[in-house]
């Protein structure tokens, strides 16, 4: 790929503009997207940034992009550090946004996890809430925003119209490649998500960092939490197998905590740290290799 400009690296003013846009699209838990016009019929720099973000995401998330990112990042040869330190490292991700208006990464993760804990869920579920966006460290390794966040979806088969801004796939070369543009593409009927390449981003990356340590429902939550065209719209039922459907009950359970737990009351990190350090020690190895 030719060298990207700053605008192409970071079309979003802030990474959170994507989360805010998802929230507008899905204001109610468990329901499909609102009609586009109902929430995009006004002009704002945030919406323009999100639109440009998706234009680039849909143009560049090809089958080959995913294989290349996996070949690079699944070597885990970038950095090694304790998990808590990695969470603090993620928090060095600062962008152009107004710090008074936006929660930092650690605050979003603690609010998600604390909401899960308050509802009495198992401790591995709480830990999942706490780390679910750690994969965003990809931004600190020089990845453009559209290779880190955004709705995720399968590559190697037809892009669904249920994915946000489907018209932008017109710029994606896979749309014109006969290997990849049929309903099943390189896959087969009910072949199961484990056999499918998802668009590259923080979800897939963290799945690979945690897959040997967390219970399977946690891994589904991590790996598919941005797969809105499936967990809200059921656009890829033809690829999921029965086990995926069973496990997606957990993805559905997780999603409201991710989307609706934001609160202006910021958690006190120092008070919560001992509890989360213990949780990390219970399930995860001493260090994470990024
Ligand atoms: Fe996320
Ligand atoms: Fe999140």
From TrEMBL:
Listed GO biological process terms: inositol catabolic process
Coiled coil: none
Keyword check for Cytoplasm: yes
Domain of life the protein comes from: Bacteria
Sorted UniProt keywords: Cytoplasm, Iron, Metal-binding, Oxidoreductase
GO cellular component terms listed in the entry, alphabetical order: cytoplasm
Cofactor: Fe cation
GO terms, molecular function: inositol oxygenase activity; iron ion binding
Xref: Pfam families: MIOX
Main location: cytoplasm
Compartmental location: Cytoplasm
Protein's name in the database: Inositol oxygenase
Organism: Mucilaginibacter mallensis
């Amino acid at each position: 790929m030719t060298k990207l400009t700053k605008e192409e690296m970071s079309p979003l003013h802030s990474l959170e503009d994507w989360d805010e846009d998802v929230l507008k699209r899905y204001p109610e838990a468990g329901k499909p997207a609102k009609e586009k016009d109902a929430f995009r019929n006004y002009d704002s720099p945030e919406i323009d940034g999100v639109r440009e973000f998706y234009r680039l995401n849909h143009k560049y998330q090809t089958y080959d992009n995913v294989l290349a990112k996996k070949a690079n990042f699944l070597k885990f040869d970038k950095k090694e550090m304790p998990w808590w330190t990695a969470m603090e490292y993620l928090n060095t991700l600062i962008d152009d946004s107004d710090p008074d208006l936006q929660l930092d990464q650690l605050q979003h993760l603690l609010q998600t996890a604390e909401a899960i804990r308050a509802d009495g869920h198992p401790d591995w579920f709480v830990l999942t809430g706490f780390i679910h966006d750690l994969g965003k460290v990809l931004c600190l390794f020089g990845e453009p925003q559209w290779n880190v966040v955004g709705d995720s979806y399968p590559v190697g088969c037809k892009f669904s119209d249920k994915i946000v801004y489907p018209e932008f796939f017109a710029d994606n070369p896979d749309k014109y490649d006969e290997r990849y543009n049929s309903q099943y593409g390189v896959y087969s009927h009910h072949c199961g998500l484990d056999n499918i390449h998802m668009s590259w981003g923080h979800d897939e990356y963290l799945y690979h960092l945690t897959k040997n340590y967390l219970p399977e429902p946690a891994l589904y939550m991590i790996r598919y939490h941005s797969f809105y065209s499936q967990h809200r719209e059921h656009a890829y039922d033809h690829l999921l197998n029965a086990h995926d459907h069973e496990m997606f009950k957990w993805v559905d359970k997780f999603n409201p905590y991710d989307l609706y737990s934001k609160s202006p009351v910021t958690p006190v990190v120092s008070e919560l740290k001992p509890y989360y350090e213990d949780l990390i020690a219970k399930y995860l190895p001493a260090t994470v290799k990024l």
